[in-house]
Amino acid sequence: MCGSLLAIRLAQRGYKVQLFERRSDMRKSEMYAGRSINLALSDRGIRALKMIGMDQFMLSESIPMEGRMIHSVDGNLSMQPYSGRPGEFINSISRGGLNIGLLNKAAEYPNIEMFFEAESTGANLNKGTVQFKLADGSIVNVEDSIVFGTDGAGSAIRQSMMSDAGRLRFNFSLDFLSAGYKELHIPPSKLGEHLIEKNSLHIWPRNKFMMIGLPNLDGSFTMTVFQDFEGEEGFNSLDTDDKIHTFFSKHFADALALMPDLVNDFKTNPTGSLGTVRCYPWQVDGKFVLLGDAAHAIVPFYGQGMNCAFEDVVILDNLLDEMGDNWEGVLDAFQKSRKPNADAIADLAIFNFIEMRDLVADPIFVKKRQLETKLEAHHPDYFSKYSMVTFREDLPYSEAKRRGDFQNEFLMELCTNTDDISTLDTATVLKDLKSWMELKDII
Asked: Do the beta carbons of residue 384 and residue 403 sit within 8 Å?
């Protein structure tokens, strides 16, 4: 998606663009299920879509999610709004639908040439060339071009950089979580309606594992269970129909009643791994550059992977406004600007796994979120860490993390020592918070 978005924006700027995709044209083939994890489109991604004139179209194809609906083991429900300000929510959107929408938009531009089933067979960083093998066996050589590696967490362009790591002083790490994920499904009712609350991101937090559900336009929910591969209740141990059914009956009984194809989905759909990619540098000699997951793949728990990749394109576009066709300068400025923010959202995403899995059911955390919602409702200048990351596209990820971490420290301590947060005056809380942060030189 990052590559399609970038191609469209470059074409709008008047460049001739060749777009190479290893897979077949998904507009002409059956959608592949099992590895999607529906996307949560928020302000940073919406800003990028607005840049190319697609924001309203894609929002019309999405479902607003106003908060987290928490499902306890005994089936009780509790709602945790994402914000106390009206109009701040995230949007559930189909990964395939967004991909197809961007490809259709790209097809409108005569200066974009698209190649599908085109596998990169290698890049020559010294010569500034890259080669692709097409489905019919023919070879396409690309030279005298800027090469944008938006080819995902397993990037072939990044692999070429790693092959020349000594000269580039190229640093790379890939850190996997012990947990993996598997996609499941709640179908719509016979009338095509959602069987659970439509405008929420549903979470079943169970300490060592969890399940989430995001709504689809057809009335269904894309469900994803996250748990360790190993252990008594790990993916690798749930190897019979009885074990699968018993596990879900024990931990997710209310969802199980709505998942008639659970056992087949669990056995058929692949189990994916969850990892964080960090690397640097992202560009070589103003000729090659990594964007999106190729440069900074993150785990999905902040709902920011796609939004962050789209923001890459916005930042690159802004630098082109400032610096023109000085590509070496643009790409160097791009990597220096984005690297600290990519690292920040990677750290935030890992911690949010713990928050979603464990803390959303913790009484102190629940009080803290309730207090933050009141602060946002009564004081427009207050933003929780979640709101800074999700709804403040003007604030870099690194700054949102820095401020948010200190805010959380103060508020968690306050809620630990307060039995009833309804007794707290929000204006006093905000004044004390600002004084505390000024003392620590945060603001």
From this structure: no
Verdict on whether the full-model pTM lies above 0.90: yes
Task: Tell me which CATH homologous superfamily contains domain 2-33+40-61+93-172+275-343.
Answer: FAD/NAD(P)-binding domain (3.50.50.60)
What confidence tens digit (pLDDT) does each residue in 342-367 have? 999 999 999 988 877 777 778 898 89
Does residue 396 have a cis bond before it (omega within 30 degrees)? no
Q: Distance between CA atoms of 339 and 350, rounded to whole angstroms?
A: 17
CA distance 285 to 128: 9
The residue extents of the domains of the chain are 2-33+40-61+93-172+275-343, 362-439
Integer Cα distance of 297 and 260 in angstroms: 33
Separation CA 178–CA 361 (nearest Å): 22
What CA–CA distance (Å, rounded) separates 349 from 18?
Answer: 33
Low-confidence ranges of the chain (pLDDT < 70): 30-37, 441-443
What is the pLDDT, as a whole number, of residue 442?
58
The token duo for 47 is 């800003």
d(CA 33, CA 16): 34
What pLDDT score does 359 carry? 76
Query: Given 3-state DSSP classes, what are the helix, strand and coil percentages for the chain, each rounded to the nearest 5?
Result: 45, 20, 35
CA angle 139, 141, 146 (to 5 degrees): 145
| CB-CB contact of 193 with 219 (8 Å) | yes
Task: Count CA atoms closer than 13 A to 357's CA, side-chain side.
Answer: 18
Residues forming a β-bridge with 438? none
Q: Are 279 and 290 in contact (CB under 8 A)?
A: yes
CB 301 within 8 A of CB 211: no
Backbone angles phi, psi at 306, to 5 degrees: -70, -40
